[in-house]
Design goal:
Number of helices: 19
Radius of gyration: 26 Å
Distance between the termini: 56 Å
Strand order of the largest sheet: 10-16-15-14-11-12-13-17
Helix content: 25-40%
Structural class: alpha+beta
Largest sheet: 8 strands, mixed
């Protein structure tokens, strides 16, 4: 069950539709969000390919993934936890209507990590997939866990999904986007008839726990009941929660805690003696950069570590396992919005220590963990300016704000309005896709912007005492011209060669093969436009196949022609070719 040397999950594979199915709608949640990671999600959902950095360098590949999926996807994240990308990318603007920041009251955090995806095949058979993860939608390389359940629609309803229904109702309240609300409400209506299966004969029963929303409390999930054996994997701790779990131990109970080395000072001598405590060895931790909810920058000194949240408890040979987003912290169980999946585990002869044997390996040399025998000496803490900056960004995200685009003679300006600003903090702000930055005031004007610099994503920088952090925040912005999306397409598909490459990509039977072929061509020496005329016989053949087998591909091409709508980009010869096939397919339909 827990073999990190063998059982590796691929995020793309978890999202990819089953053979013969297409995505109807996908709702995802995360604490921190990386737009560069998010841009790969449509590739997995619509093109059934990996969210690989290589393909993210191919704008045509990414553009088509977004074109197919952006309207069928919603991602919810903690307000103020969108990472500033390394480079601006016009494609980010096409995801604005799919990203929703959640700003909870009383400094609580929106912390769940899950996906609920509805697929449908050509016969309108419905399949749902629920992914419960401990991983944020970032490029963090820390150790995480995930589990997938799938369910089909049946005539008889079930009450098991009511917590999931209530969680979706909460998400509906967090988006002003009418079409996304309609998709979520359709899922809410259908979920009582979806019967999820674990896919494992040893997991006969499971329950959903959306903590922090109305009607759901961390004390009611059974985790804090008495036990004989307990295993905790949690990267972040609160002494109060670990102590409460310890107090529920029965006589001679075994207690194991796996955490981060940096969290050890939060434990007491009583707890370090009661629990067998483990951390990842330094040789494992030293390696890869990370960005998670607790790290404020991409830095190679920020190393991989435990990020999974996992609880396993047993009493009288009854085993229960919990996975999801909740750390062993007071915030997780007494305030934050979290999501856990609990599973009953039944297997003849199974003991909880078998999990540790799988996790630790057969040989000590193979064990990635080391046991902690003593508490480290507590170091004097410096004043945490980063924490102040983080709270300031969080406060800013909970302030009413809006923006208005105004058209000038040749350029645009954006007028930003904030009801209030956090005190004793300096802020700057600028559009994500622009290099222009201004000092933030209650009313801020940013001038001399092009059409492609407009959007609802803004870079915010907070500074105090020589320290700073940057985040992306989303501000409702009125007056963005309707032709901005067309301008984005024209920027990416900006010449006849790129246009024909896009058409060839749309007509291909295998998107991955088409992308690889185009990448190979790009790696070769540049070719003249005149040399591309030899592609027409191939295009003719592929359009003939599309007209006969997949006329919807011609509809996709029609959409791209309408979006580009420029004589210098769409070759006249191709347009006549398309018109011929378009008329032919209309005649076939009649």
């Amino acid at each position: 069950m827990l073999k990190p040397d063998k059982d590796r999950l691929n995020y793309s594979d978890l999202l990819t539709p089953p053979a013969g199915y297409e995505v109807v709608f996908a709702a995802g949640t995360t604490y921190s969000l990386d737009l560069e990671a998010l841009i790969g999600v449509p590739v997995a959902l619509s093109l059934s390919e990996e969210m690989d950095q290589t393909f993210q360098e191919d704008p045509i590949y990414m553009l088509e993934g977004l074109r197919q999926t952006a309207d069928h996807m919603a991602i919810f994240c903690e307000a103020g936890q969108i990472k500033v990308p390394k480079e601006g990318n016009s494609l980010f603007a096409l995801m604005e209507d799919s990203v929703f920041e959640v700003a909870l009251e009383n400094e609580r955090s929106f912390h769940p990590k899950l996906w609920l995806i509805k697929y449908q095949d050509k016969d309108r058979n419905v399949l749902y997939r629920l992914l419960v993860l401990s991983r944020n939608l970032t490029f963090d390389r820390s150790w995480d866990m995930a589990i997938a359940l799938e369910g089909e629609k049946q005539p008889k309803p079930t009450t098991k999904n009511q917590p999931l229904v209530d969680f979706l109702k909460f998400l509906v309240s967090q988006t002003p986007h009418h079409e996304k609300q309609q998709y979520l409400r359709a899922m809410i209506k259908e979920l009582p008839y979806i019967h999820f299966q674990s896919g494992d004969k040893h997991v006969p029963d499971f329950e959903f726990h959306p903590l922090g929303i109305e009607g759901y409390d961390g004390e009611d999930i059974g985790l804090f009941d008495s036990y004989h054996h307990l295993i905790i994997i949690s990267p972040f701790l609160s002494e109060a929660i670990i102590s409460e779990l310890h107090e529920n131990a029965l006589s001679q109970a075994t207690q194991v805690l796996i955490t981060r080395r940096s969290e050890l000072p939060k434990l007491t001598y009583e707890l370090i003696n009661a629990f067998k405590v483990y951390v990842l060895k330094d040789t494992i931790v030293e390696g890869e950069g990370a960005f998670s909810e607790e790290s404020d920058a991409v830095d190679l000194s920020q190393l991989q570590d435990i990020h999974a949240k996992f609880y396993a408890r047993s009493k009288h040979n009854q085993h229960r396992i919990y996975m999801g987003s909740a750390n062993s912290s007071t915030n997780a169980f007494e305030g934050n919005v979290e999501f856990l999946l609990s599973m009953q585990y039944k297997k003849y002869g199974f003991k909880l220590h078998h999990l540790l044997e799988e996790l630790f390996g057969d040989k000590e040399a193979d064990n990635p963990f080391e046991k902690i025998e003593h508490l480290p000496e507590e170091q004097e803490k410096e004043e945490d300016h980063k924490d102040q900056l983080q709270k300031a960004i969080k406060t800013l995200c909970r302030t009413k704000s809006h923006a208005v685009v105004q058209k000038g003679n040749e350029n645009y300006s954006i007028r930003l309005f904030f009801e209030s600003l956090p005190e004793d903090m300096e802020f700057t702000i600028g559009p994500l896709l622009s290099k222009k930055v201004c000092e933030m005031k209650k009313e801020t004007v940013i001038e001399q912007l092009s059409l492609l610099e407009l959007g609802e994503f803004y870079k915010v920088k907070a500074e105090t005492n020589g320290e700073s952090i940057e985040r992306i925040i989303k501000i409702p912005t009125q007056g963005i011209p309707a032709d901005r999306e067309q301008a984005i397409y024209r920027k990416i598909i900006d010449n006849p060669v790129a246009f024909l490459q896009y058409v060839a990509f749309l007509l291909a039977d295998d998107f991955l093969l088409a992308a690889l072929e185009q990448m190979e061509k790009k790696s070769m020496a540049a070719v003249d436009w005149s040399s591309q005329t030899g592609n027409y016989p191939i295009l003719y053949e592929n359009m003939l196949k599309a007209a006969a087998r997949s006329p919807e591909k011609l509809e996709d091409i029609h959409h791209i022609i309408e979006m580009i709508d420029h004589d210098d980009i769409i070759p006249e010869q191709f347009f006549h070719l398309y018109e011929t096939f378009s008329h032919a397919t209309k005649g076939m339909k009649k």
